């Protein structure tokens, strides 16, 4: 190591937000949240390690009467060898991070001046977020000091989320400087010799979107957990307000507790958990179910997604007559969350996270630190956590039998509960405490500290296919699932080209049903999932719903009038509730006795209902908003991702797929799907539609050959 005392001098850079050593103003605004807490705790923990000499946490100096004078102090000691250093950054006032870009060169120059005044040169610079990455690359290049980087949040993922929320591309540039941010991230990833992430999924699914994707330089170092706040029960938890609030729901509050804690978000899959519990008399006999799903005063005043989740939970409680067995308190304080974990642990219960996907799983670590075994979704970060701690079981979140089985294993296996609880406590201490975090951090950065000289940056390997200039969409059931042996070569071809081709599923199924089939048949998670006949759009990696699409299709939609208008018609019968959704009214239809589609449309028009009426396979009738369909959802997605329709290959075959394969898309109808509903297309030999001679996934591969669809992916970028 390069320092005189043999212990390295580390410089952490975190520019935006309000950073101080005590009383962090977490949640004050979008810039003062988890990152500010993380960098302060990281600096402290590094400074306490005997192998570290000096730690400087460098941030922006703010001189503004609207904020505390603390943020104007140039130096704030945190310990004997750790301090916060505040550097002038052009504008003195406190402003959002998106407005800092033009001041970052000034910040970098001032920081170089500060470093040159120090008695020794840093052994490592660690930048946090894109703005610090921009500064870090300049400092690293000028001083020849190795650079490590943590993204915290990535611009490419952020852009997807904001587009899904309805923001225009122009608005993203005006408000978020999103292109500038992504360019800074690309440069940083090209220079950084170590990228620190929280999970393997972050590496594989988020950083993989970048040209400078260098997984060999990336290391997973999970965040630390505050073991002063989360610890095993002491016995006095039952004398708290939150314990009384939970107990008032339950006939026998002394039973073991199955605890679920999350936002009321459809992706958290809480209603499925209630369904599994309701279907298991054994679980109901053994344990109470406690659901902490945010805070609410009136469900009717919450956003639509939260309303649907909470209403579905309440309906399941009523359907299975779970009164006295399920608690779902309306309010809790953040400070009561550790008590809830300890209550569950004291009862010898279990914590469950049944989310459809979970990028990290902080609640699982908190539960483990509280001495509570866990059951968690097999999708995402929980795989790492349970693999490290051996304190629970992974579960298919869409399989009630699997959920029930894993919960019963924890609750009934002789001696297993104590073993899992002990494993969790030890695993958190070993892998997820701040001390463990620092040990892994130093292990990950040791080669950089020992070389003491930055390696030359690796030139970007420009992979234009990364930007996904084409997309392949397929229906699910008949297109992909009819012949399992033909699915394997299709998946292999798709995976070989996923860097340049976006993969989408467009199905009439609901999200949970579609996810269940994807998992069952080991189909790679799609980049975009269009469900419920095009009324819902979800984006990878976290199944982010396209809320802008929901607002768009809500135009003139009134399902109550639709059901009333069609009530009593011969040959029509409503499908079960699990096939209905907010934007889809679904019937079984007997064409022999039911009115034809023209008459059904006429009845709806007479009631002022402008809708799309879909007939599939001669037996399913679906009514959806006039602005919704598989084809319209596909085009909405293609427009947002700037993919020309001429580079979209759509595979379909039923009447519900017609507008997806008509028009300017490349299209294929596989051999088993030459359904009579599309007979006119076949007779007309419709331009742009390829009628495959082979069935199922083989027919899609035949179309890929026919259109030379993957050819561009095979050409090396210059």
From TrEMBL:
Q: Which GO terms describe its molecular function?
A: hydrolase activity
- Every Glycosyl transferase family domain range: 250-413
What are the UniProt keywords, alphabetically?
Glycosyltransferase, Hydrolase, Transferase
Q: What class of enzyme is it?
A: transferase
- The question of whether Glycosyltransferase is a record keyword is answered with yes
Annotated ranges, domain Sucrose synthase first GT-B: 10-206
Instruction: List the InterPro entries.
Output: Glyco_trans_1, HAD-like_sf, HAD-SF_hydro_IIB, HAD_sf, SPP-like_dom, SPS, Sucrose_P_synth_Pase-like_dom, Sucrose_synth_GT-B1
- The answer to keyword Glycosyltransferase applying to this record is yes
Q: Which residues form the Sucrose phosphatase-like domain?
A: 470-708
Gene3D superfamilies per UniProt: 3.90.1070.10, Glycogen Phosphorylase B, HAD superfamily/HAD-like
Coiled coil ranges: none
Instruction: Give the EC number.
Output: 2.4.1.14
Q: Which reaction does it catalyse?
A: beta-D-fructose 6-phosphate + UDP-alpha-D-glucose = sucrose 6(F)-phosphate + UDP + H(+)
Q: Which family does it belong to?
A: Belongs to the glycosyltransferase 1 family.
Entries under PANTHER family matching the protein? SUCROSE-PHOSPHATE SYNTHASE 3-RELATED
Q: What is this protein called?
A: sucrose-phosphate synthase
What organism does this protein naturally occur in?
Answer: Candidatus Thiothrix phosphatis
């Amino acid at each position: 190591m390069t320092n005189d005392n043999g212990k390295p001098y580390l410089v952490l850079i975190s520019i935006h937000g309000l950073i101080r050593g005590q009383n962090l103003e977490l949640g004050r605004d979008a810039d003062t949240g988890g990152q500010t807490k993380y960098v302060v705790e990281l600096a402290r923990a590094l400074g306490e390690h005997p192998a570290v000499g000096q730690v400087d946490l460098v941030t922006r100096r703010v001189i503004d009467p609207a904020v505390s004078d603390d943020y104007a102090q140039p130096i704030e000691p945190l310990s004997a060898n750790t301090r916060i250093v505040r550097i002038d950054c052009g504008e003195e006032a406190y402003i959002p991070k998106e407005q800092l870009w033009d001041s970052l060169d000034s910040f970098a120059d001032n920081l170089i001046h500060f470093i040159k005044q120090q008695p020794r040169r840093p052994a490592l610079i660690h930048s946090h977020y894109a703005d610090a990455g921009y500064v870090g690359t300049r400092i690293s290049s000028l001083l020849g000091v190795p650079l490590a980087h943590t993204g915290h949040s990535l611009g490419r993922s952020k852009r997807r989320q904001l587009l899904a929320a309805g923001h225009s591309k122009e608005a993203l540039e005006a408000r978020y400087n999103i292109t500038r941010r992504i360019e800074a991230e690309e440069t940083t990833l090209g220079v950084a010799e170590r990228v620190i992430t929280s999970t393997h999924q972050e590496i594989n699914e988020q950083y993989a979107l970048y040209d400078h994707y260098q997984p060999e330089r990336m290391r997973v170092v999970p965040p630390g957990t505050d073991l002063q706040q989360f610890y095993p029960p002491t016995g006095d938890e039952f004398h708290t307000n939150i314990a009384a609030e939970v107990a008032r729901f339950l006939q026998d509050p002394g039973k073991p507790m199955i605890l679920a804690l999350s936002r009321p978000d459809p992706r958290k899959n809480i209603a499925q958990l209630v369904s599994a519990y309701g279907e298991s008399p054994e679980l109901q006999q053994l344990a109470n179910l406690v659901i902490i799903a945010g805070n609410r005063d009136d469900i009717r005043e919450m956003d639509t997604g939260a309303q649907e989740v909470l209403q579905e939970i309440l309906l399941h409680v009523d359907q299975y007559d779970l009164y006295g067995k399920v608690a779902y308190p309306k309010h809790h304080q953040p400070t009561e969350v550790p008590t809830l974990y300890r209550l569950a642990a004291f009862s010898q219960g279990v914590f469950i996270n049944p989310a459809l996907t979970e990028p990290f799983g902080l609640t699982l670590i908190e539960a483990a630190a509280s001495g509570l075994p866990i059951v968690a979704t097999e999708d995402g970060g929980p795989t790492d956590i349970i693999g490290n701690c051996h304190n629970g079981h992974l579960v298919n979140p869409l399989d009630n039998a699997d959920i029930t089985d894993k919960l019963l294993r924890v609750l009934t296996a002789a001696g297993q509960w104590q073993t899992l609880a002990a494993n969790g406590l030890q695993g958190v201490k070993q892998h997820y405490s701040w001390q463990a975090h620092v040990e892994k951090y130093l292990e990950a950065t040791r080669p950089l500290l020992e070389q003491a000289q930055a390696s030359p940056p690796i030139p970007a390997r420009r992979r234009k296919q990364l930007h996904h200039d084409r997309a392949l969409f397929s229906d699910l059931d008949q297109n992909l699932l009819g012949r399992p042996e033909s699915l394997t070569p299709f998946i292999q071809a798709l995976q070989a080209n996923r860097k340049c081709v976006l993969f989408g599923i467009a199905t009439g199924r609901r999200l949970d049903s579609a996810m269940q089939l994807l998992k069952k048949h080991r189909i790679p998670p799609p980049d975009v999932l269009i469900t419920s006949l095009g009324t819902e759009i979800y984006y990878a990696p976290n199944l982010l719903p396209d809320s802008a699409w929901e607002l768009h299709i809500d135009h003139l939609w009134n399902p109550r009038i639709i059901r009333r208008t069609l009530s009593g018609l011969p040959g029509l019968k409503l499908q079960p509730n699990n096939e209905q959704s907010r934007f889809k009214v679904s019937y079984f239809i007997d064409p022999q006795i039911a009115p034809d589609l023209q008459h059904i449309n006429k009845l709806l028009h007479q009631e002022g209902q402008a809708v799309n009426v879909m007939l599939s396979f001669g037996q399913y009738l679906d009514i959806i908003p006039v602005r919704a369909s598989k084809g319209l959802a596909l085009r909405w997605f293609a427009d947002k991702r700037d993919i020309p329709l001429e580079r979209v290959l759509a595979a379909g075959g039923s009447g519900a797929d017609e507008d997806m394969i008509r028009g300017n898309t490349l299209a294929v109808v596989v051999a088993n799907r030459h359904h009579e509903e599309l007979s006119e297309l076949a007779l007309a030999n419709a331009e742009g539609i390829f009628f495959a001679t082979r069935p199922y996934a083989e027919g899609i591969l035949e179309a890929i050959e026919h259109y030379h669809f993957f050819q561009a992916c095979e050409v090396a970028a210059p």
